[in-house]
């Protein structure tokens, strides 16, 4: 297990739904015979009670959650294999594949793939805005400067390239906000499609699927929820698919020669990277071994351990953008400009950001804004739930106050449990006439019946496992580590913040992280990195029609990029941006007398006079 992942990071728990199924026996410990002891003496209950009490039963997290829980023993191994140590080992094992810049300003291989080049890799990193916010609050810098420091560590001359066996570093450091815009546009289209086709494959309400902790919980405990889950990949997964598919096509190398690392706020993102649905087999064919779209995920705290392992002082790194010689252009001009020549949205006040958008990507906010563009003059009504992590939103008609679109936000597992219980299908009654008397959609639907938005049904729900959103991820820097980090006395996170007080100091700290998260919106300090080429190279607006901009996101340009991506890689767009889910069943805790399906069939065959 990662050295900084501990029980102290778990601040939200799920009450057990069933009794513990692990058999625990506490037999009295066999005592050695003394000189006067009789080896044939019978031990009575009185003697046992008079002796030392038996040790308490020991049940580990793996034992408790192996029965279709949140973390299985296999998943614990997957998490432990992704750490800063794996990053350093990979950089030392493989040389960096040399890239040459052509006359058109685009990168390519300097000598092709031959000989030793097969033992080389192209290293690419993607960084989430929540990670930058955590580091920005820690070192009292803006979110933009924190991003520059990360780029200097991963790609700059004073970072990882200054040491190691081969002096390898990351060719590109990508902001996942870019692919987040792709996810927002696709999510709005998906929500509208669910409204237009009520009998379609995706059921209402559509539930966000970007949080891997929530997905693991749904797959293992509530399979009836899977039909409601959004089919879209998360920004992390979209970035991995884009990087590997484009580089493999443009550089003429297999996907396994592209090594992609993501820096995320949550340990559960390591589990997402290990999903078999997020590999090259979904878009590159079934030949050969499946290559993960994201090879390794580390958190903000592990990023500091990465720097410390190379004796690099993270706060002393330059806070300016990378020089051009350290940031080669992406091999494809259109993708290059989409990834790096971006103008950030306008800065918003923190109050508006917290209430309407949140710090988990803004899926719900963008969908609500898109719906308001469909109904000019409509207003947004917000109703707070039983706590700060539950809110209800409604797009209201300007004429008669009718609810045109209704959605909600559920953060934290305690609130998620209430949501999934209300979405559970009602059991069919065997009483005559009960089916006709039951209201369509059942009484468990959140917000009321399912006859339409006029009756208050949710069309979309943003679901995240962490209370407060993604800036409160388990991999973020804790308030107890800040003093040590600012003094430059090491990473200060080896023990995972053991003994730290969560409330109220941690809550105040999370407010500062949220402030840093929104400081990046609209900040123009240092300017954007000026990549070579025109800003709109390869992507053009049709016939001079005005761009379809919703809350700072150019939906038309995103759609053009998606179409271009699919055409360039010759892969269906659905395979590039969508994923699937599966119900996870476990035999742990089942009675041995029940047997498997094969055993049941075999028993029936024997009883009928046959057999295998």
From TrEMBL:
Record-linked SUPFAM superfamilies: Fe-only hydrogenase (SSF53920)
MF (Gene Ontology): 4 iron, 4 sulfur cluster binding; metal ion binding
Organism: Friedmanniomyces endolithicus
Its job: Component of the cytosolic Fe/S protein assembly machinery. Required for maturation of extramitochondrial Fe/S proteins. May play a role in the transfer of pre-assembled Fe/S clusters to target apoproteins.
Protein name: Nuclear architecture-related protein 1
Pfam families: Fe_hyd_lg_C (PF02906)
Ranges where the record places region Disordered: 28-55, 430-451
Recorded superkingdom: Eukaryota
UniProt biased composition (Low complexity): 430-440
Gene that encodes it: NAR1_3
Record-stated family: Belongs to the NARF family.
Domain annotation Iron hydrogenase large subunit C-terminal: ranges: 122-474
Keyword set includes 4Fe-4S: yes
Keywords tagged on the record: 4Fe-4S, Iron, Iron-sulfur, Metal-binding
Keyword Phosphoprotein: no
């Amino acid at each position: 297990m990662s050295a900084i992942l501990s029980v102290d990071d778990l601040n939200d728990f799920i009450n057990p739904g069933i009794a513990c199924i692990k058999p625990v026996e506490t037999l009295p410990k066999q005592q050695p015979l003394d000189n006067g002891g009789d080896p044939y003496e019978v031990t009575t209950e009185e003697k046992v009670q008079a002796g030392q009490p038996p040790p308490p039963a020991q049940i580990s997290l793996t034992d408790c959650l192996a029965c279709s829980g949140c973390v299985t023993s296999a998943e614990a191994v997957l998490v432990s294999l992704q750490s800063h140590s794996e990053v350093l080992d990979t950089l030392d094992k493989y040389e960096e594949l040399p890239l040459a810049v052509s006359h058109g300003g685009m990168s390519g291989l300097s000598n092709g793939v031959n000989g030793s080049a097969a033992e080389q890799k192209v290293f690419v990193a993607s960084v989430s805005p929540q990670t930058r916010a955590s580091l920005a609050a820690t070192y009292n810098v803006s979110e933009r400067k924190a991003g520059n420091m990360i780029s200097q560590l991963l790609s700059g001359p004073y970072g990882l390239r200054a040491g190691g066996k081969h002096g390898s570093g990351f060719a590109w450091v990508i902001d996942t906000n870019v692919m987040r815009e792709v996810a927002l546009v696709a999510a709005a289209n998906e929500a509208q499609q669910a409204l237009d086709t009520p009998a379609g494959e995706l059921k209402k309400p559509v539930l966000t699927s970007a949080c891997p902790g929530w997905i693991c919980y749904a797959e293992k405990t509530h399979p009836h929820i899977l039909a409601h889950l959004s089919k879209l990949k998360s920004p992390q997964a979209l970035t991995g698919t884009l990087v590997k598919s484009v580089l493999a096509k443009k550089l003429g190398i297999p996907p396994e020669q592209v090594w992609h690392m993501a820096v995320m706020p949550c340990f559960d993102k390591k589990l997402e990277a290990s999903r078999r649905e997020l590999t090259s087999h979904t878009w590159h064919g079934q030949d050969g071994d499946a290559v993960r779209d994201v090879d390794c995920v580390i958190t903000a705290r592990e990023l500091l351990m990465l720097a410390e392992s190379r004796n690099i002082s993270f706060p002393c790194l330059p806070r300016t953008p990378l020089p051009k010689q350290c940031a080669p252009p992406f091999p494809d001009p259109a993708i290059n400009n989409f990834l790096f020549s971006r103008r950030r949205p306008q800065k918003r006040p923190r109050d508006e950001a917290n209430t309407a958008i949140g710090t988990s990507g803004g899926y719900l906010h963008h969908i609500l804004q898109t719906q308001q563009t469909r109904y000019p003059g409509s207003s947004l009504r917000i109703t707070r739930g039983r706590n700060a992590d539950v809110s209800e939103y409604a797009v209201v008609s300007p004429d008669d106050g009718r609810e045109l679109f209704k959605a909600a936000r559920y953060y934290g597992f305690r609130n998620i449990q209430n949501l999934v219980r209300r979405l559970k299908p009602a059991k069919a009654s065997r009483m005559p006439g009960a089916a006709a008397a039951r209201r369509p959609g059942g009484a468990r639907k959140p917000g009321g019946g399912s006859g339409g938005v006029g009756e208050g049904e949710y069309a979309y729900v943003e679901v995240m496992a962490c209370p407060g959103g993604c800036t409160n991820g388990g991999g973020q820097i804790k308030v107890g580590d800040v003093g040590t980090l600012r003094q430059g006395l090491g990473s200060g996170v080896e023990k995972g913040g053991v003994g730290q007080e969560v409330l109220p100091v941690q809550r105040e700290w999370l407010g500062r992280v949220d402030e840093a998260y929104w400081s990046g919106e609209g900040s123009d300090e240092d300017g954007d990195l000026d990549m070579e080429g025109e800003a709109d190279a390869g992507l053009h607006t049709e016939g001079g029609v005005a761009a379809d901009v919703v809350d700072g996101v150019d939906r038309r340009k995103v759609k053009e990029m998606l179409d271009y991506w699919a055409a360039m890689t010759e892969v269906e767009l659905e395979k590039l941006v969508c994923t699937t889910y599966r119900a996870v069943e476990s035999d742990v805790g089942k009675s041995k007398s029940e047997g498997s399906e094969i055993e049941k069939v075999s028993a029936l065959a024997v009883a009928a006079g046959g057999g295998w």
